[in-house]
Amino acid sequence: MSRPTLDMVMARRREDVAARKALRALAELEAMLPGLPPTRGFAASLAAAPRKPAVIAEIKKSSPSGGVLRPDFDPGAIAQAYAAAGARGLSVLTEEAYFQGDLGNLGRARSLTDVPLLQKDFLFDPYQVVEARVFGADCILLIVAVLTPSQLAELAGLAASIGLDVLVEVHDEAELEVALGFPAPLLGVNNRNLKTYEIDLGTTGRLITALGDRRGERLLVGESGIRTRADVDRLVAAGVDAVLIGEALMRRPDLTEAFQELFA
Predict the structure, then answer these.
(1) How far apart are CA 203 and CA 250, in angstroms?
(2) How far is it, in rounded angstroms, from Cα 120 to Cα 101?
């Protein structure tokens, strides 16, 4: 699989969202909101973890950098395995073109486990926020690199109004300053450079240092490039409350064994 640029991913995402809007209007999705069950409290689940780090385990079939990670992909079975192993949150990839995701995987995971769900995708439109709630997400990802401050404010505000938690993701100091302008409960640091795909685990520690005493009530999440127990320990020492981990688990035949090796 060739590695798309972030601009390519967003261009395709805009096409996909436009196509979905043509099939079902926003008003139709909004009409479903009153009948939905309450969200499960993604941030609260991480905060209540009996030990650090709380684990957000990712359900992901493929990625631009890694190709197909799990040919025998069964999102429901994966969700059950993660829940049994002790995951405090599940991250469900829903982007279709480059990650082979599916919005329906949120419902498949939700029906088989009580663990709260993060929808992992490239969100830019209020339609997607409402869609996430309808399909079963408890939390959404907002990536500072693909949003203007006004978009971030709009989407975060809408999410809060319909019961969704928000994980605001940053990659560098400039994005961190933008993120601090919004009272989202979760702040994620992605160790992957979205332009080069290179991983630098030092990014998390550097940005936590830059955060200083401005942390407030936010839970800090380390994301990407976590492959070994030493990597986990390094991020915990840097000050994270939770880690989001996908490929290191997805590539292993025995998910429970892989989880225990990293977090036992």
Answers:
(1) 23
(2) 9
Three-class SS state of 100: coil
The Cα–Cα gap between 9 and 165 comes to: 24
Q: What average pLDDT does range 158-176 have in this prediction? A: 97
Residues with Cβ within 8 Å of residue 1, at least 6 apart in sequence? 62, 64, 67, 68, 98
Task: List pLDDT tens digits, range 56-94.
Answer: 999 999 888 778 888 889 999 999 999 999 999 999 999
Active site residues: 58, 60, 120, 169, 190, 223-224
Q: What is the pLDDT of residues 112-137, one digit of tens each?
A: 999 999 999 999 999 999 999 999 99
The token pair at 204 is 């998390």
Q: What kind of architecture, by CATH, is found in domain 6-263? A: Alpha-Beta Barrel (3.20)
Domain range list for the chain: 6-263
**Which helix (H) or strand (E) segment is 47 a member of?**
helix 42-47
Are 115 and 88 spatial neighbours (Cβ–Cβ below 8 Å)?
A: yes
